[in-house]
Amino acid sequence: MEWTKWLREIPDFPQPGILFRDVLPIMAHNDAWQEVLDGLEQRIKPLAPDAIMAPEARGFLIAAPLADRLKIGLVPVRKPGKLPAPILSETYSLEYGENQLEVERDSNLAGKRVVIVDDVLATGGTVAATSRLASRLSATVVGFAFLIELASLGGRSRLDANALVTSLLTL
Ligand SMILES: O=P(O)(O)OC[C@H]1O[C@H](OP(=O)(O)OP(=O)(O)O)[C@H](O)[C@@H]1O
Ligand SMILES: Nc1ncnc2[nH]cnc12
């Protein structure tokens, strides 16, 4: 797993006591980035998803190339106040704060198999909120895929037990 050498760890960001796992240097190195996308694609493909959902912002950067590789739709889940059309909203907390996530009501997800992707699974608050939005849109969440899982924060236990939860690297 060569890509892991480009994972940057920054202490006390964005708050004292948080060890921030910065994935952007991985994206800046094409071999590493292709290795990550290959790994995620291999794990997601057997789930036969119809669409990917991803939370803003780092999730978007991973979801877009994966949706293109898999030739499926992409439904972005945004931070508050960004979407122009009628929305659904969920409040959530994450490792370093709380916020809302929003999705357009008209997202073409009813009856679809959805995989949720993001860079880091920490407490799981972000993707659990994304999953609630998927359910409210009558989609079935069949999987969650991450580059990195911070196991000590227990996010996995907050996610639907019927869905696959997969991470390329567990720390
Ligand atoms: O498992 P959790 O405790 O919910 O934390 C994980 C989330 O935190 C980060 O997002 P952040 O809100 O910092 O957004 P960004 O991608 O816009 O930087 C990360 O990209 C995940 O979405
Ligand atoms: N420690 C961490 N590093 C990067 N992103 C995060 N999101 C939540 N916790 C995080």
From TrEMBL:
Enzyme Commission code(s) on record: 2.4.2.7
Entries under CDD domains matching the protein: PRTases_typeI
Catalysed transformations (reactions): AMP + diphosphate = 5-phospho-alpha-D-ribose 1-diphosphate + adenine
GO cellular component: cytoplasm
Name of the top EC class for this enzyme: transferase
Subcellular location: Cytoplasm
Record bears the keyword Transferase: yes
A GO term for molecular function: adenine phosphoribosyltransferase activity
Record keywords: Cytoplasm, Glycosyltransferase, Purine salvage, Transferase
Any one Pfam family match given in the protein's UniProt record, by short name: Pribosyltran
UniProt KW Cytoplasm keyword: yes
Pathway participation: Purine metabolism; AMP biosynthesis via salvage pathway; AMP from adenine: step 1/1
InterPro entries associated with the record: Ade_phspho_trans (IPR005764), PRTase-like (IPR029057), PRTase_dom (IPR000836), UPRTase/APRTase (IPR050054)
Annotated ranges, domain Phosphoribosyltransferase: 47-151
Single Gene Ontology BP annotation: AMP salvage
Taxonomic superkingdom: Bacteria
Quaternary data: Homodimer.
HAMAP family for the chain: Aden_phosphoribosyltr
Similarity field: Belongs to the purine/pyrimidine phosphoribosyltransferase family.
Role according to the record: Catalyzes a salvage reaction resulting in the formation of AMP, that is energically less costly than de novo synthesis.
Matching PANTHER family: ADENINE PHOSPHORIBOSYLTRANSFERASE (PTHR32315:SF3)
Protein name: Adenine phosphoribosyltransferase
Organism: Sulfobacillus thermosulfidooxidans (strain DSM 9293 / VKM B-1269 / AT-1)
Species classification: Bacteria, Bacillati, Bacillota, Clostridia, Eubacteriales
